Amino acid sequence: MDLSVYIEKLLAWFSVDMGIDLGTCNTLVCVRGEGIVLNEPSVVAVRKGTNKVLGNGTAVGSAAKEMLGKTPGTISAIRPMKDGVISDFDVTEAMLAYFIRKVSGRSRLFAPRVVIAVPSGITAVERKAVFDSAARAGARKVYQIEEPMAAAMGAGLPVGEPTASMIVDIGGGTTDVAIISLGGMVTCQSLRVAGDEFDEAIIAHMKKNYGLTIGEQTAERIKIEIGSAAKLEKELTMDVRGRDMVSGLPRRTVVGSEEIRESLLEPVHQIVETVLHTLENAEPELSADLVENGIVIAGGGALLRGIGQVIEERTGLSVRVADDPLTCVARGTAIYLENLEEWKATMDSDVDEG
Q1: pTM, rounded to two decimals
Q2: Which member of 7, 19, 68, 230 lies 3.0 to 4.6 Å from 309 by CB, making a disulfide possible if both were Cys?
Q3: Has residue 352 got a pLDDT over 50?
Q4: Architecture per CATH, 159-193+266-323
């Protein structure tokens, strides 16, 4: 055994190596043998003008998300990830440092190895920003894996076999669509339209049709409770509260699932078109496999009612939602970490920058 490999294995006994799904909306951390150990919003509360995290560095995740849209002038609740990539380097570093410290504990002798999932369409500069943030946050060694590959691994697809597997990973900031065979992505497309755009479409609908301004958290609740991409057997309604655009006073109204579905048509259409374009770029033998294997959807967007049905109708292929789609990417990073040397040798798309 190579000496460096032996040293790494030895160090692994004294550190908590982890896989991280650094998402636009939520960050999940998976530890080998323990599964998902952390699932918190990608939000940080800072003192305005300083980027100093409140609460001695603890106003991160769920505690910070509760502050969104409710902070006084001296405090900002920031989402440092935008469209799947880092938009605020310092705040992302603080957030990662908090999560790594929370998972690994202060008493560990050695810093952890970290595998981070990144969107397939990010640039080399954006990749380096992810690496630098993780390294400065306390990782001993940083590896990157593209999100669709991690999602496919977490969904249990046979990514290493000579057969086509297709994954549609609809996250908060990006949708990644990939056809995978023999441990690599044969064709892949990344679209910066996903769960955030669903929320923005709902916010715009409420302004245009009701003259009501609502926040991100309210839009997300509407999406979860009554949102859909296809007609429902029983349409739903929901009581929505916000600020009247004319009077500036608090007001409530009732909205229905039909109109919310109408507001989501455009982002859903863009995702479906990306799936179709990816299929058009597939080799004939891979297409033949997909007739048998179908398509798997993962990520938070997979939970939008009827989105699998819409993709199935447009492609003619069977579509299923992965088990626990929200955690597929995080679980995939842990699988990669458990078989690090094997996957590094076979997956060209991965970047080892440690």
Answers
A1: 0.89
A2: 230
A3: no
A4: 2-Layer Sandwich (3.30)
